[in-house]
Amino acid sequence: MHAGEGWGREDTLPCMRHLSRRLFVVSLLLINALARTAAMAQKTADGDQQFAELGACKLVSGQQIDGCRLGYRTWGKLNADGLNAVLVPSWFGGASNVFGVVVGPDKMVDPERYFVIAVDALGNGVSSSPSNSKTQPGPAFPAITIRDMVNAEYRLATETLHLKHLHAVVGISMGGMQTFDWMVDYPNFMDVAIPIIGSPRASSRDLLVYQSIADAIRADPAYRQGKYESKPPVPAAQRISMMNITTPANFVHTTPRDKFAETYAANDERGILPADANDFLWQMEAMIHNDAANGGSMEDAAKRVKARVFVVVSAQDHMVNPTPALEFAPLVGAKTLTIDSECGHMGFLCDAATVNPAVRGFLDGK
Fold first, then answer.
1. What domains, with CATH codes, occur in the chain?
2. pTM, to two decimals
3. Residue-wise pLDDT tens digits, 117-160
4. Helix/strand/coil for 14
5. Other Cβ atoms closer than 10 A to 346
6. Cα separation of 322 and 316, whole Å?
7. Core-most of 77, 130, 217, 285, by most CB within 10 Å?
8. Rounded to whole angstroms, what are the CA distances from 347 to 85, 115, 167, 288?
């Protein structure tokens, strides 16, 4: 380089000063961004309610949810390679604030080992639902499907949490239905799928129960075609649920005959409250139309699955018949566990001493 050329020229000094100012500004922006991130991390403790603002959620029907938001909570930390995330979608009517039965060192998913994401499924009253939509309230809220729930959860994982992969999806009941959809619709996004007392498609027995509940809601005079001012308890819907959530034997053992009148009256007064009847109905309709094969054959749907699958069912389940899940399991080479408990649909809780370590072991690759 000759004298007077390149970095030695005087006319380069303004450029260098400009470059220095730009670097200083970029550094300030970076420092501010890191400070904001650190502040957010301090504010968000394990189990805190958070929301993902997704804008418009396009639905499989062609409609959309305006101002779509998804509630979620997290526990634990993402590891260095970002591959220890476990997503747990909520069950029917459930919300992420009750996921203490799933998350813990002695529960199904250990937050010391995994970054756990508990998601409030669409329609549960926390995430976008008929009861909380400002622009599409009550009966104006579009119908949702299990697939719509999963699509929104995928956006949460990728757009909000910026995850490139999940270690696993673990779901119970309607969460298990979502897990079947997850493994079929996003086969490359997870290593493990564990549907628990869920189903890839409603059986005829399931349809009998779900449709009866839906009809009971619509037939209740206080429902008023979904245009009520105060939440109706719709007690008939609650009665049908009570008859099917466990087994006849369990009901007899837990509700003595001399206590029945008192129990019946209390349950009728409360009904499905504090649940909102429209939220309840919208999720019920999603389960009625649940179909992981999306109108095709289960054999073709199974060919898409790449995850290791562990299917947990309850033999005496009156709410989600185990047959469809057990028929799907061999199609994907799944390991299975059948609970035989008079607790029926709630067998995963009554037999937690068996279910929890089995789930933890499968998550750990054992």
1. 50-204+284-363 (3.40.50.1820)
2. 0.87
3. 999 999 999 999 999 999 999 999 999 999 999 999 999 999 99
4. helix
5. 20
6. 8
7. 130
8. 26, 26, 26, 22
